[in-house]
RNA sequence: GCCGAAGUGGUGGAAUUGGUAGACACGAUGGAUUCAAAAUCCAUUGCUCACAAGGCUUGCGGGUUCGAUUCCCGCCUUCGGUACCA
């Protein structure tokens, strides 16, 4: 019997789905275990082999935990709001809801034929069903299925994951985003009490105001919050009260800097901006202030830091969150702006944050971010032009550019001066783009002798560099070593080391009332508004410009329909196009926009929520995903608690993973979740890169003498020079052999004789120019046109790119090979490998095993389909091991079996060797799974099956546990074998085999005998010898004497059970 | 720039605590089987030298150690993140 993976996999996938094998129950006596994957954004391109890597790993772990007797929750869903669907909507007018649904559910029926609703009258396939929408496809095209969207669900299903699909969520489903909106309202209705260090309902803040005003309230709030008394509070109008409360709420409105692109009418992400212009269309981009919803994540800065110590996440990921939060201790210092500055001058102060208050006497200038609000106020008329043009120039640079660029030093003098708090000397105030507006206060006290950037700035603009470090030469560079610091030229700080000087400086500043010790965080409040269509609408309407929440019972507020998905002509977000987008208070319903009267009908919020909104609580929603009354029941969350294992990419380190921790802590504060970290353990899976196939196209450079005798040399595509044929492609083997490491080679070097021959035969009469050198272009070929030995299918290549149909192909030894390069998997590089095709050819079990076999889970690694034959061959061998009967029939022997073959009882005890390899495998695999080292498990299985095959093992006692060991990795084949072994129940809950030490104990060891650290020979010795006995045995060995050649060893190192090393 | 990760045969990788470098695979070469192909099986395969003996070898340069892929110092290269891509 052959290993028929197609039938086996289809059969068991169907059976699992029908039986609900992987449904997790919210009530169970078993211990719970929650394995979570980062849910995908369902893109039209579908899955490539890189996507399932983490899902396979988590599935192995989930299945392993089921074998270990746990009640496992392993859900999957879709992060289905996002930009690509919106971009497509802008281009085609297709509703993102429809494209999203297609991307998830696909366009094929159960037989794999396209659904009739996607076939147009003329039998062509509707554009929305196509992956590559650039050219028309009809149902008569032979391979139309390759270009039809199969849908994420179908692609995931065929990989045999043990997901509990009954719990699926989609962030764009109103039933789901109802609860995203609900959490937003909870945040709006909360403030952060720094006394109790917890978020509290806004009512407690209001009652505090009503009792004592806000002077005594310890809260996280906006910097510009005024102090008011009870009387003042009571005298405030309702609107004033609302404005004040906004300064405390955990989500609030504020003016934030964004990258505004006037031409596109939209805000751009940093990576959508290249060299100061938009990536799409190359339009100018400006920094601009816009009113945005913000999340007061800074309230949680310290707790987000502290929490990192309590979770088992990768250290690099923790490091990046730590750096992101960026805690620094120092002092805030207030500098008076000297009144000789013009206009409003006089009472202006500049707040700076410094980590080095000890260097305050080294200040020789101040630097403000060009965006700093005081810049326009303090700039003197003479400097106005210079300052303004500088501000304009920096507005065009992205923050990342400004941070990355340390070489060009730019800035402008405002003409204004600050006053040193102690010396009262005037300090010139500059602006410079190395100061970022959102970082600290957006202003620096510049100490050139102690900070390299300040030093460079001072040198560049000829500003003083006073030295305040004892015994340090600062003529070449700044001195930033805190440990070796001794302060001098600094009045009361003279002679003090760093730590004492800091303390003293802060104390003196406090005496003056011009500063205090302060902890600063780099973390900023998160912008929560997006000027997009395809996102969660806010449950917010505006009365007199003040935001009001819509009551819980009216949620969800569903996304309105719009004609166009672009911003409006007046620059409002796409929701501004909606004709039905107003809140009627009386009816408690969304009504037509034109009914807005400011009395009972009010405008709704036009922004939508960002991508991370929907993913910040989804892990909790999975626990009770269809609950319509609560975000989840308390029973469900009490049972499941938190995620035990979360697998996903490290690119989410400071986005999703930080925001989710913030929301979880908030939910914890409000008593909605039992723990304040949502995932105990997290593993980052690496990227799978593509292995591109590159075909080498000849380029020749020619020399030509023109009429007046100038000699010109130029490089030209061969095809353009010679009309008689198209490009000449040359086998990579030959190119490499002739070219070596060089890029190009002189024609006179007498290489590439084959090319010369070729030119002579085909074009001798056409070449009237002198060839100078030979080089090559690399052309990407589709990877599936290349086989495991890098040979190109030339006919396939010609068919695929008809431009090359008439090209010539120069072979080497009858083969035409391509070069290989590892690059990111992408459509444009033709190196994307689709899991469907792999499943079709080798099966899901082979794909799962191979993805694991590629290498360590956390590392990025290149995909090369060629290698899959190794694991596929292994599965065939595994199958054979259980099918050693006549004609490949299934055969397993029991110890007490009555089986008789020709009168001989075939029952047999497994051999000691069989037990040994089985138990070695159990030990290794269990260790591997616990260490997430899945690649080494696959090797271990191979060794085990190879050995058992060699031993002709057929014992149930061996083969039954073996199938369980392999089943997390290759669930289909092992389920089939399990079934054949006579079990009615799924293998998935069979108990994991127990490792028994007694089967693997060794009595002797093959010792490596080294001389001066180099292994020369091995020697088998009993393990119970002591050091001296081993030494004696080794010294007595003839090869030892041979090696020593008469010398006496200086020293003999014996490590029992490990090695012997003879020195001398 | 800053932060993080990784460099081992032709390729993916293994070596769990400092102890036989290259497990397990892919590819390649030769052979068996076959009318032939596929499939399967066997042998060889880090480099170097004609063989053997030997020498060299974990990105580069140092160091610690009886012994370093592993620990320390200094460099180089590639990749990821860098606040509106998801």
Describe, in plain words, how this protein is organized in 3D.
- Residues 918-1028 form the Methionyl/Valyl/Leucyl/Isoleucyl-tRNA synthetase anticodon-binding domain.
- Residues 11-91 form the Aminoacyl-tRNA synthetase class Ia domain.
- Residues 323-509 form the Leucyl-tRNA synthetase editing domain.
- One of its GO terms (biological process) is leucyl-tRNA aminoacylation.
- With 1064 residues, this protein is an alpha+beta fold.
- Among the domains are: 173-185 and 296-326 and 525-538 and 554-564 and 584-633 and 648-677, Rossmann fold, CATH 3.40.50; 328-521, Isoleucyl-tRNA Synthetase, domain 2 (Alpha-Beta Complex); 688-823, no CATH class; 835-999, Orthogonal Bundle (Isoleucyl-tRNA Synthetase, Domain 1), CATH 1.10.730; 1004-1063, Ubiquitin-like (UB roll) (Roll).
- Helices cover 30% and strands 19% of the residues.
- The chain is built from 32 helices and 38 strands.
- Strands 25, 26, 27, 28, 29, 30, 31 and 32 form an eight-stranded mixed beta sheet that branches. Strands 10, 11, 12, 13, 14, 15 and 16 form a seven-stranded mixed beta sheet that branches.
- The two termini are 62 Å apart.
- The model is unreliable at 719-725 (pLDDT under 50).
- The structure holds one RNA strand of 86 nucleotides.
């Amino acid at each position: 019997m052959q290993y028929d993976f197609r039938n086996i996999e289809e059969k068991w996938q169907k059976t699992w789905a029908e039986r609900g094998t992987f449904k997790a129950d919210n009530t169970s006596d078993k211990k719970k275990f929650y394995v979570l994957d980062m849910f995908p954004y369902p893109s039209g391109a579908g899955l490539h082999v890189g996507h399932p890597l983490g899902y396979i790993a988590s599935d192995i772990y989930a299945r392993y935990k089921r074998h270990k007797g746990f009640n496992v929750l392993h859900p999957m869903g879709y992060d289905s709001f996002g930009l690509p669907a919106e971009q497509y909507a802008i281009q085609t007018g297709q509703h993102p809801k429809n494209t999203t649904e297609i991307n998830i559910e696909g366009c094929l029926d159960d037989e794999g034929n396209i659904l009739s609703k996607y076939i147009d009258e003329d039998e062509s396939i509707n554009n929305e069903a196509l992956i590559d929408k650039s050219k028309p496809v009809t149902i008569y095209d032979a391979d139309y299925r390759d270009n039809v969207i199969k849908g994420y669900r179908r692609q995931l299903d065929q990989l045999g994951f043990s997901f509990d699909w009954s719990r699926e969520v989609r962030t764009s489903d109103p039933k789901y985003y109802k609860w995203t909106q609900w959490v937003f309202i909870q945040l709006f209705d909360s403030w952060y009490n720094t006394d109790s260090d917890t978020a509290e309902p806004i009512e407690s803040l209001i009652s505090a105001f009503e009792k004592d005003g806000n002077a005594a309230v310890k809260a996280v709030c906006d910097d510009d919050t005024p102090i008011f008394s009870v009387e003042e509070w009571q005298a405030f109008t309702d609107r004033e009260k609302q404005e004040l409360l906004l300064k405390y709420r955990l989500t609030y409105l504020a003016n934030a800097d964004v990258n505004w692109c006037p031409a596109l009418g939209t805000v751009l992400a940093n990576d959508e901006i290249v060299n100061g212009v938009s990536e799409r269309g190359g339009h100018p981009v400006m920094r601009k202030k816009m009113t945005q919803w913000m999340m007061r994540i800074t309230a949680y800065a310290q707790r987000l830091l502290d929490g990192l110590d309590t979770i088992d996440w990768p250290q690099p990921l923790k490091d990046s969150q730590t750096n992101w939060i960026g805690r620094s201790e120092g002092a805030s210092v207030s500098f008076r702006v000297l009144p000789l500055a013009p206009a409003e001058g006089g009472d202006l102060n500049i707040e700076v944050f410094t980590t080095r208050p000890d260097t305050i006497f080294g200040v020789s200038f101040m630097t403000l971010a060009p965006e700093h609000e005081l810049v326009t106020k303090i700039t003197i008329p003479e400097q106005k032009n210079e300052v303004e043009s500088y501000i304009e120039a920096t507005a065009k640079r992205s923050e990342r550019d400004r941070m990355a660029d340390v070489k060009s030093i730019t800035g402008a003098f405002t003409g204004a001066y600050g006053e040193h708090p102690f010396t009262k000397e005037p300090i010139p105030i500059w602006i410079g783009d190395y100061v970022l507006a959102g970082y600290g206060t957006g202003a620096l006290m510049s100490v050139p002798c102690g900070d390299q950037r300040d030093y460079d700035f001072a040198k560049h603009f000829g500003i003083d560099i006073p030295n305040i470090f004892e015994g340090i030469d600062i003529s070449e560079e700044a001195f930033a070593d805190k440990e070796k610091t001794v302060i001098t030229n600094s009045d009361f700080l003279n002679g003090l080391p760093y730590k004492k000087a800091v303390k003293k400086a802060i104390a003196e500043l406090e005496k003056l009332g011009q500063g205090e010790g302060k902890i600063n965080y780099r973390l900023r409040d998160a912008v929560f508004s997006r000027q997009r269509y395809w996102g969660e609408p806010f449950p917010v309407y505006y009365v007199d410009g003040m935001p009001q929440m819509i009551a819980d019972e009216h949620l969800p507020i569903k996304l309105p329909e719009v004609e166009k998905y672009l911003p409006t002509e007046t620059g409002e977000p796409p929701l501004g196009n909606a004709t039905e987008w107003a809140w009627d208070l009386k009816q408690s319903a969304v009504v037509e926009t034109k009914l807005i009267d400011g009395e009972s009908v009010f405008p709704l919020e036009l922004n939508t929520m960002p991508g991370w909104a929907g993913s910040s609580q989804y892990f909790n929603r999975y626990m009770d995903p269809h609950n319509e009354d609560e975000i989840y029941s308390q029973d469900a969350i009490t049972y499941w608690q938190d995620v035990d294992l979360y697998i996903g990419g490290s690119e989410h380190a400071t986005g999703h993973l930080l925001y989710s921790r913030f929301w979880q802590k908030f939910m914890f504060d409000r008593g909605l979740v039992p723990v304040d970290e949502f995932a105990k353990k997290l593993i980052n899976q690496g990227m799978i890169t593509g292995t591109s196939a590159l075909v080498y196209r000849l380029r020749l450079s020619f020399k030509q003498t023109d009429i007046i005798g100038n000699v010109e040399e130029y490089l030209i595509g061969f095809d353009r020079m010679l009309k008689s044929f198209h490009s000449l492609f040359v086998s990579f083997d030959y190119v490499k052999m002739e070219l070596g490491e060089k890029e190009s080679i002189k024609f006179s070097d007498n290489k590439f004789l084959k090319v010369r021959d070729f030119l002579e035969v085909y074009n001798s009469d056409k070449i009237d120019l002198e060839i100078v050198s030979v080089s090559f272009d690399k052309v990407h070929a589709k990877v599936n046109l290349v086989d495991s030995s890098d040979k190109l299918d030339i006919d396939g290549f010609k068919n695929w790119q008809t431009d090359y149909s008439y090209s010539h192909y120069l072979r080497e030894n009858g083969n035409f090979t391509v070069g290989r390069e590892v690059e990111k998997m992408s459509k444009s590089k033709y190196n994307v490998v689709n899991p469907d095709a792999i499943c079709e050819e080798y099966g899901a079990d082979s794909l799962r095993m191979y993805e694991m076999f590629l290498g360590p889970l956390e590392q990025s690694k290149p995909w090369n389909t060629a290698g899959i034959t190794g694991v596929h061959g292994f599965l065939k061998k595994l199958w054979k091991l259980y099918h050693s009967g006549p004609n490949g029939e299934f055969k397993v022997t029991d110890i007490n079996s009555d089986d008789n073959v020709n009168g001989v009882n075939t029952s047999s005890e497994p051999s000691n060797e069989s037990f040994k390899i089985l138990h070695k495998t159990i030990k290794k695999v269990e260790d591997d799974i616990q260490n997430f080292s899945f690649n080494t498990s696959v090797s271990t299985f191979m060794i085990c099956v190879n050995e058992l095959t060699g031993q002709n093992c057929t014992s149930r006692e061996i083969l039954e546990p073996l199938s369980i060991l392999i089943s997390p990795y290759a669930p289909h084949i092992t389920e089939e074998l399990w079934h054949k072994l006579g079990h009615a129940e799924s293998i998935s809950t069979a108990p994991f085999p127990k490792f028994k030490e007694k089967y693997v104990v060794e009595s002797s060891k093959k010792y490596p005998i080294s001389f001066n650290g180099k292994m020369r020979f091995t020697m088998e010795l009993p393990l119970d010898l002591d050091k001296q006995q081993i030494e004696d045995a080794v010294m007595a060995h003839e090869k030892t004497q041979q090696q020593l050649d008469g010398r006496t060893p200086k020293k003999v190192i014996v490590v029992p059970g490990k090695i012997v090393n003879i020195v001398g």
